Amino acid sequence: MRIALIAPPFISIPPKLYGGTELFIGHLAEGLKSNGVDVVVYANGDSTVNVEVRWLYSKSQWPLDGDVFSNMKDINHAAWAIADAIQDCDIVHLNNAPGLCASRFTEVPFVYTVHHPHEQGLSGFYSYYPHVRYVTISDFQRSLESMPRMRTIHHGVRIEDYPFREKKQPYLSFIGRLAPVKGPHIAIQVAKKTGIPLKIAGEVQPLFKAYYETEIKPHLDGSFIEYIGEADLTTKNELLGNSMAMLFPIQWNEPFGLVMIEAMTCGTPVIALRGGSVPEVVRDGVSGYVCDNVEQMEERVRNLETIPSVIHNHAKENFSVDVMVRRYIKLYEAIQAERQSLELTAKDVVLAEPGAAA
Hints:
The protein folds into two domains: 185 residues, Glycogen Phosphorylase B (Rossmann fold, 3-Layer(aba) Sandwich), CATH 3.40.50.2000; 156 residues, 3-Layer(aba) Sandwich (Rossmann fold). Helix content is 39%, strand content 16%. Helix 1 packs across helix 12. The protein is globular.
């Protein structure tokens, strides 16, 4: 079985810094390879994932320069990748919407992982491709969609990439885009109300520069409220692993939230506001706390009762790459079995036609 994993062309696989979709593709590709599945990744030339990689654009391009021209690059990349993949691949696994258009022109089965929050325009677009097998990354996300062929497969991380740490230090952590929907301003509020220092890591995107300048930067003092910039894996492990708790005060319906399982793998509890997938990922009272308001978050910070080893085991049992890869292989195998069954049925129909055996 040969699988084509098609990524957007803008960020390398795996990402050098932030890139949730790209990290997922890298983990899935190498996990498939280690399970004996032949896989090719269509990305950009900066990609270093340890499988076969093909590219049209040699360099990463992030942040994007402009929507119109960047989208044209995404469409061009997807069309080229699919035209190449259908020559020798059994399944095309898309991770960007433009490629769905090309599914009309081939009998090769398509899988599409939905990485974004619910958007009515995209859901309407998906309705034109009912033959595609859609994978949602949370049951919450799936509940908002109506495509006929859907299943949920949660993301996973490589457990060995996030060393477990029993001993914690007296500070809180926040990792994520410094944007209003991620709630870093609320994390600052919780830290100040509880008197516990906060370390913040994340990208300041141009779109939210004004938010950063007015809501975040004035509180940074390099000591009690500290901004450490964007975090690579080493920095992320240091930040999350030593933290007494990670704050996840989201202000939107998060489709998944990869950083939650990264924190839990380190044995660090997640204190989150309820929204989207949070109750699926955080087992309330076991791997963290699901809160209804900021006051509850503050109370949970003051009264942490979680056990790091239990948190780590929850992540390992439910959100490892191994678990995720096995579920995708099961999906691919089901698609292959269905296709073979249809081919056999079609063959039987031909043989049963009058005169077919003459």
